[in-house]
Amino acid sequence: MNKDGKKVIFSGIKPSGDLHIGHFIGALKNWKALQDEYECYYSVVDMHAITVRQDPAQLRKRSLSMIAQYVACGLDPQKNTFFIQSHVPTHAELGWVLDCYTMFGELSRMTQFKDKSAKHADNINAGLFTYPTLMAADILLYQTDLVPVGEDQTQHIEIARDIANRFNGIYGETFTMPQAYTPKVGARIKSLQNPAEKMSKSDENANACVLILDDPDTIMRKFRRAVTDSGSEVRRGEGKDGINNLITIYSAITGLTPEQVEAEFEGKGYGDFKTAVGEQVCSAMRPVQEEYRRLMASKDFLQAIYKEGAQRALSASSRTLRKVYRKVGFVDR
Ligand code: ATP
Ligand code: LTN
């Protein structure tokens, strides 16, 4: 809860690749619905991004582009606080303290750590291992009530809660207990090429992922090539990951229930359906892309957004950090 009695929301996206429709459906679209009721902080978590090697020029460009995409997806910079994680030093500072209240065994069990270490076997760095404590710091610094994330992040929210609990247990009430907030539809949009896996911006197969900034021809081509099973009816079912995923996408974009989608396509085949999904996604992305281009052309406006965001974030997070420093026994500055 903030000082005006509003509940607090925090979420972050790594600038480690281009945003795709999984982000749009699983994250950004839902964030827009929260901006009036909650105090919302959204961070471009560049410090988390460098747990995997990044090209410096690309990282810089993507961090800026990410802020523009947030705003282009309908998030109002007046109502939400957008900032770049490395601009707000309290994150690294609390991250270190929390490292000292997090157990080696707990971190070893994290599935994202296991997945990423298997994928980047030549760079299993300490940051990749302690990634969840920095994420816990991100969340706990703002006395966050809700963390809107996709399903893949629930384990990280659990460990943030465990760390908060442990700290509160030793020093008395310090951190608000955060809760994950996952959307009912679209919490895990799957890859179009391997629908058993989530759509991921680090996927090497470009056809697996439909980007928010893809042009209409590319979007249509990727949907036409989407991998589906050998059936033909547009109906959800066990083992029909591909068609289930396309129904989820269509349903999330149009606002229809999956049952209504099945009824609409009764008697039609996969081909017609794939074209229809592509068309819906194109028309949902058109206004987003127009707004994005307008924003990227006014760098001063973007800079003003993230600078002001960093100030607001620093002011809110410093209150928590000060409290923590005092509790663990650091001398006042
Ligand atoms: P990477 O794939 O490079 O590890 P990521 O896309 O999983 O990155 P972020 O970009 O930081 O990680 O994710 C931002 C948010 O979008 C998170 O809340 C995440 O859960 C959500 N998200 C990511 N992919 C999907 C998806 N396929 N479906 C639904 N939500 C997703
Ligand atoms: N770990 C998340 C990104 C992330 C985050 C956060 C999400 C970093 N800090 C705080 C929510 C709250 C990911 O990989 N998607």
What does this structure look like?
The chain is mainly alpha-helical and 333 residues long. It has 2 domains: 8-187 and 299-328, Rossmann fold, CATH 3.40.50; 206-293, Orthogonal Bundle (Tyrosyl-Transfer RNA Synthetase), CATH 1.10.240. Helices cover 53% and strands 7% of the residues. It has 13 helices and 5 strands. The protein has helices spanning 21-32, 46-49, 56-72, 90-99, 104-108, 111-119, 126-140, 154-171, 216-224, 241-254, 258-264, 270-296, 299-328, and strands spanning 8-13, 39-44, 80-84, 146-148, 179-181. It has a 3-stranded parallel sheet with strand order 1-2-3. It has a two-stranded parallel sheet with strand order 4-5. Helix 1 (21-32) links the parallel strand 1 and strand 2 (39-44). It starts with 7 loop residues before the first strand and ends in a 5-residue tail after the last helix. Bound molecules: adenosine-5'-triphosphate (ATP) and L-tryptophanamide. Adenosine-5'-triphosphate binds at residues 13-14, 16-17, 22-23, 26-27, 149-150, 152-153, 187-189, 198-202.
